[in-house]
Each structure stands twice: as structure tokens, then as C-alpha cells.
Amino acid sequence: MLRCASVLMCLLHVLHTVLGAAISPKPIIINGTYINPELGKYHARLRTLARSCLEIRDKHGVTQDGMYILSTASGTYYQAFCDMSSAGGGWTLVASVHENNIRGKCTSGDRWSSQQGNDQHRPEGDGSWASTHTFGTAEGSTSDDYKNPGYYDISAQDVSVWHIPNDEQLSNWTSSAVLRYHTESGFLRDTGNLYHLFKKFPVRFGAGRCGSDVGAVSPVVFDTGDKDSTADLYGPSAGGEFESGFVTFRVFDSDRAAMAMCSGVRPTQCSPQHYCIGGGGYFPTSDQCGDFTALDRSHTHTGASRRLTESAVLLFYR
Amino acid sequence: MLRCASVLMCLLHVLHTVLGAAISPKPIIINGTYINPELGKYHARLRTLARSCLEIRDKHGVTQDGMYILSTASGTYYQAFCDMSSAGGGWTLVASVHENNIRGKCTSGDRWSSQQGNDQHRPEGDGSWASTHTFGTAEGSTSDDYKNPGYYDISAQDVSVWHIPNDEQLSNWTSSAVLRYHTESGFLRDTGNLYHLFKKFPVRFGAGRCGSDVGAVSPVVFDTGDKDSTADLYGPSAGGEFESGFVTFRVFDSDRAAMAMCSGVRPTQCSPQHYCIGGGGYFPTSDQCGDFTALDRSHTHTGASRRLTESAVLLFYR
Amino acid sequence: MLRCASVLMCLLHVLHTVLGAAISPKPIIINGTYINPELGKYHARLRTLARSCLEIRDKHGVTQDGMYILSTASGTYYQAFCDMSSAGGGWTLVASVHENNIRGKCTSGDRWSSQQGNDQHRPEGDGSWASTHTFGTAEGSTSDDYKNPGYYDISAQDVSVWHIPNDEQLSNWTSSAVLRYHTESGFLRDTGNLYHLFKKFPVRFGAGRCGSDVGAVSPVVFDTGDKDSTADLYGPSAGGEFESGFVTFRVFDSDRAAMAMCSGVRPTQCSPQHYCIGGGGYFPTSDQCGDFTALDRSHTHTGASRRLTESAVLLFYR
């Protein structure tokens, strides 16, 4: 006999029973009735519906890495990967930059620069850094470009960045990472996230000059690798052109070509095309146009290592 | 103590309590248990699951603009934006035509004409107007082409069309609109929706002739702008080639090239490439191939204004 | 008055009542309250949440074809079409190969070979056969390439293959099929699914030789058509180059170009480009590069019939 003090208490009894059973890992048979454990897992994930992984950690006490369901301010629902382990957790994967063809210069698949060729009439290229256009999936983010609604919707203070070998499956990401780091400076507090940062500091050819017009820079704390191993990932000659231990957003080269992100470093010279990625749609030196700009250079001298150029760059917010 | 007259009454008590609490805007603590308000909003949206925004308005009495969950006849679930305000509401956003590169002629991103170049062997181009192929998201529909399952699934009588500046966020659409209008003629009643209309009247080079083979035309009621402001959006010379205050679907130019939609106007001459959009995959004058055909023309004489060419065209059904 | 022997029994009463009402086809009014039938259908579909259509059949006893909700091991939710009718049912649609431009050779839309042109520096092409990159939708799978998370996530033993005319709507697939067959050999048992099979046997130029390096071959049981009608679908000359009544995965031609799948047949000669589809990104004979390789050849002699080249190839797992 179920007796409850009130409708609300009765409801809570029922909900606790449902959800308690639901997150159990094995099938449950109650009086001959099968309770679907997959549905239980779904309800457990849905129960923590929030605007970000940080909210899921803070409001719902979740500490397990994995896929969760999030909502934008406008009420668009989407699935995202939450890193609940690194540096306290609460990190939402919002994007990845994947180079599908290092020899293709602003061709199909170069969504973070331009898929329309090098073109001086399109100085912002495809504009993905500052748009609400989304693409890809979390589970496919090491095999293709990825951008979810969290990129423009979540209010964040810091970023975490993972370099994961191309085509690596989600369950192996942490163990196979080439480089992982995060910021603790709260450098995104002013703008709120990268979408707004790049609205303010456009990734557009000619919008600024090398040195004087950097969008944002922050020191980083390494989770996999360190300053030296990061420098080694870029080419032997490139080492003298940057300082390791930072992440930098929106820079220009000496030709006024714009790049979106220098992962793990901050430029001290004016040839960021050898270690910065993403970009506008026009590079006066046309073979630099592309998601991974001129990181390849046949993997010699100024070129980055294959470990770096054959890894996707995953972006998290917190 | 919860006592109910029957299982059904008890269930209704419980559901009312859950859903009543769920749509409350602030967190709810009951006997120390936190009820997630985001989950509540989700349940409120899910509760009105239907085939179209019109059904949500009519059957569930919803009057708030926003994202809702819809289902196709086959049971595919998707999220769509509902305009519940304009002219009585009940409008489902099903598609947007976004020009990512006005200088690119049937290149990548020209999903509403052809992404394979101007090609006489592909007279229908990519065929998006009459296929079940979908792409994009509602929140990204001013930054990229958009087409959801509602485009082919919903039974509609009328359309509403919004011209919204590129990259504008959903919350600003109405206030920033360049042009908005809707039909009240029920011109879609015969075919059911644009998917079926374009099956009957293909957007295919050579399938008809200027003047005699128009797919459909309807007068419109303006919600933002009027006949004159609409004519002004197209170039000064184009004004003599159409009558403002209509929307037209599937027309041909004098070369027998096909275009899908003339927004706000109906052609009276045979050069619709200056004010009609979408198209087949072949234009004898090759620089007209593209989602926005020849609307640019350097923004002079026959060219449309930048306000028009730099806005996405959002299509709603009711 | 609701009285239950325990919380669990009470819960089951409530759930049975909710779900029982939910799957009813017509609106239900209980004491003046409207219960949404679309929401009921959604709950009925959600109730069978599982890793594959086979699980839905086996664990939940479902026998109706249609769209269902599935989950990957990592907890990504997606919608898939289940064929619950053919040969006992339990088949999950995981992919389709759609040729959007038979004349385009490794151009935009050739996701199962390469969208970057014929390129000896990209011997695996876009790599879709062995990646977690997904695209398209079930309802759009006859109008565009399709690949869902089930392709890499589901543990399968057999495949079913349907050739469905381009742009055919889901409700007509079975009746309009050009060719349908399935395997019963359990040939996928070793690798688990095609994703893992192609990891082991890469679709890469130069990775093997004609004849000696076939990835997998299995006899098939025909559901629509037979050995002769299958042979007829390929060109009159091609008939002498294969044996009908099989499905083959990963083959090479005499130039060492790689192809992913020979549908309905197994090669006995070394010109599989006339009847095998999908491929790496490099073909020494460049006009063979593309999702449908050289199946067209102007539809003469070695060319396949238009019925075949204008149909999408749908891939199911069980």
C-alpha cells in the first residue's frame, strides 16, 4: 500500500523510484515487467538538462565524463560531450578544428577558414568563428569539423583545448591526446565566449596588424604535455617565433592576413601562419589559406610535426 | 495522503503537478529536492508535440514564439521555430535561402541551385526544392542554408516570408527584419506544400517558358515593409520588370532557365534573374547560376540593394 | 481510489496507464483533459530505446517498420529506420550511398569516395567508410548520402542492402525497390560491423591487389529481384566480369585503385569500377573517381542501367 502525505510527496516517491531504477546498469524485472535500462540512462541524462556542463556539475553534482543533453537560451536542445574530470570538470566540448586535407587550400572541408578558395572579396571567409552556423557531431569531432550551439550560447570564462589524433574514438580521447591544456585566467569573462570574442575581434583580412591587434591571450595550465613538448610539436624553426605556455585568439601576419587561434603559444614574430590555425578567406600568400594555414610546409623546418597536423583541435568552454 | 477516485484520476493529479511545476520559471525546492527548471521547460515543449506549429496553436493553445518539437508522418522528430505572433500565429519556419558568396556561381553553399557549377547536364541542379534532403538548423538559418523535415511533411495553405540580415540571432529577427509578408489566399491548398508544388512544377532548365509556365502566384499581406519598400529593395531598373505585392514560385527567363521564388513580387517581363532566387543547375548566361542568381550585379542599376542581398530569406508554412 | 501493494506496484499501474493511453491512435479526453496522441507515439517509440533495431525486436517485441530512437555506447541518441519485416526483421538502416552527379568525378557530394578531386596524395579519399563522421537523415537517404552513428556503433553479423530510386519517399521504399537482398552468413561477426571491417581492410589506393586482397565476401538471399535481374542491372559487357548472388567489400582493380562495395555480385575479373561503388581518393584512370566510380559510361556496354545508377544504395545491419 502506497500512502503519501501529499500529492507532491507521492510524486517524489514515484520519481525517485523511477529514476533510481533507471540508472541501474542491469535489466530490472519487477513482477515480470521489464524496465528498459537504456531508457533509464536516457532519463538520468535528461534529468540534468542544463545550459552547460558546468551547470550540470554545479547544480546536479554530476562527476562522470560523457554525453549530456543541453539547451540554448532559445530552447534548442543538443547533445554535447562533458569533461567532468580535468581540473575540476564542468567543461563543455563546443567545437573542433579538423584538417581534412592539408594540401587543400581553402577547399571543401575548410569550414574554419573558407571553402570557396583564397578570395580577396571574402576577407572573412566562411565566417564560422562568429556565426551561429553549426555542423558535425561530438562523436565525429576527430574526423570532421564540429561546432555545436554551445559555441555561441554558453557563458564561459575559460577554455580547454585538446589535440586528439584524427579518427580517434571518444573513449580513447584522453589516453591518446597529443596535447591538452586549459586556462584559469577567466579571459573570456568580458566577452562571454569565443563567438562574441570574434564578433568584437573579427577574423578578417586587413582588420588589424601583426602585434598591435591581438584579440585575446591567456597563459595556460598543461594537462597533457608541457611548454617544451608544445614547442616541439611545431617545427624547429618556428620555435623562435612564439612563446610557449599560452593560447592566443585572433592574430595577423605581416601581410595583414587574419588567423583565429594559436594553440599553446603566443606569437612574438609576424609569421603566425606556421603555428596558428583557422583564418579569414584571404591570404596574400595563397598557399596559406586553409584550416591549418601553413602548418604543413612538408613537415620540414618551419612545418609542424605530423603528430600535430594529423590531430583535431577540440575546444571546450567552462 | 494522496487519494484518487481511480488510477486515471491519480495519474492526472500526478501529471498536473509535474507539468505545473515544470513550466515555472524559477527553481523549485520541494522538501529539499531540487526540481530542474530546464527539464520543466523541456517537458512543457514536448507536451505540445505535433506535426506543425499550427497544430500547436490550435490543439494546445500555445501563443508564445520559440522553438518547439515537431514530428513527421513517419515519426522523425525535429526542432522548429514557431512564429505564434504574426497574423494570428501558427507559422512553422521550414527553410531559409542564405547566400554565402554572391560572387560564387553555383559553388559550395549554393544548395538551393547547384553546388556543382553551371552544368547543362544537371538541369535541376541539386534538386533541393523537391527533395527530402534536409540541412542546417533554425538558430543558424541566417548564417547558412536551412531546410527541415517540415518543408516536405507539413500540410500547408499559406506561406510567410522574412528577409533577415545575415548572421542575425533568433531573438532579434523580428526587430531587424528587412521585409516580412504572408499570403492569405490559401494558394498551397492544392499541392499541400512547396515540396509537392515543386514536384509538380520542377525548377528545371527548359521545363517551361517565361510567362506561360508560372508554378504559383499569390498576393501578399505585408507585416514589415510595403509594396514600395519592396520594389526599392530590388534595383532601380528592375522596378519596371515586376509588380510588387505578390510572391511567385517557379518562373523561367527568356533563356528557359528556371528560378524557384520571386519574393514580394511577380514578374511582368522575362529577366527574373534580377529579383528571383533559387534555381536549376543550368543558366545559359553562366554568371546567373547561384542561390541569389544575378541579384548582385555590383549593386548597380539592375542589381538589388545590399540590404536584400545580405539578408537570408526565411520561409514559413501555415 | 488508487491503492497499491507497494511503491513499485503503484508506479507500474501509473506507467501502464500512461503508456497504454499513449499508443492509442486517437485523441483521448479524460475528465475533460486532452492527452496528446503525438506525445503518446513519441513515448511509445522512446520506451524501446536500444542500441539497435535488433534489440528493439528481441527485447521489446516490436514488429512494426518505422523510425525508432537508438543510443550509442557513449550515449549519443539518434533516430533510425528499422525494417522489422524482411526475413524476420531487426534491421537498422545505417547508411546510404547516393550519387548526386554521375558526371562529377570526386566532387562535392562524393562523401563515400572523395570531395577533393582525384588526388594521389589522398589515397583514402574522405575516409568515410572507416570514420565516425556522420551525415544526412533517414528520410533524406534517397536524396543525399547518409551515415548515422549506428554505422560504427552497432554490433552486427549481417547486412541487408536496398537499391531505391532517388528521391523516393520512405513510405514507398519497399514497393519501389530496384533490388533488395540480405546476407545470412554472419560474415560481419569477426569485425563487428563495416566501420571495423574497413579499419582492417582500408579503402585506400595501393593497399592491395586485385583478386588476392578482398576484404569480405558473402552469398546473399534476394528479397526483391534475383541473380539474373541483378546481373541485368549492370551493363551487358560487365556480366562476364562478376558472379551474381554475392555482396563483396573492399576490392582493387588492376591499377590498385580501391573500391568499397560490390552490391549483389563478386568480381571475377579486375575491372570492378564498372559494378563496385565507393572508393579511395585516387584512381589512376581519373574519370573513375566518385561514389559510383565508372558505373555510368554513358549507359552503354560496360555501363550500368539507369535504374541502378539513379538509385541510392541503402545499407542495413543486423
UniProtKB/TrEMBL annotation, chains A, B, C:
<feature type="compositionally biased region" description="Polar residues">
    <location>
        <begin position="129"/>
        <end position="142"/>
    </location>
</feature>
<dbReference type="GO" id="GO:0046872">
    <property type="term" value="F:metal ion binding"/>
</dbReference>
<feature type="region of interest" description="Disordered">
    <location>
        <begin position="107"/>
        <end position="142"/>
    </location>
</feature>
<protein>
    <recommendedName>
        <fullName>Fibrinogen C-terminal domain-containing protein</fullName>
    </recommendedName>
</protein>
<keyword id="KW-0106">Calcium</keyword>
<keyword id="KW-1015">Disulfide bond</keyword>
<keyword id="KW-0732">Signal</keyword>
<keyword id="KW-0479">Metal-binding</keyword>
<keyword id="KW-0430">Lectin</keyword>
<dbReference type="GO" id="GO:0070492">
    <property type="term" value="F:oligosaccharide binding"/>
</dbReference>
<dbReference type="GO" id="GO:0005615">
    <property type="term" value="C:extracellular space"/>
</dbReference>
<feature type="signal peptide">
    <location>
        <begin position="1"/>
        <end position="20"/>
    </location>
</feature>
<dbReference type="InterPro" id="IPR014716">
    <property type="entry name" value="Fibrinogen_a/b/g_C_1"/>
</dbReference>
<dbReference type="InterPro" id="IPR036056">
    <property type="entry name" value="Fibrinogen-like_C"/>
</dbReference>
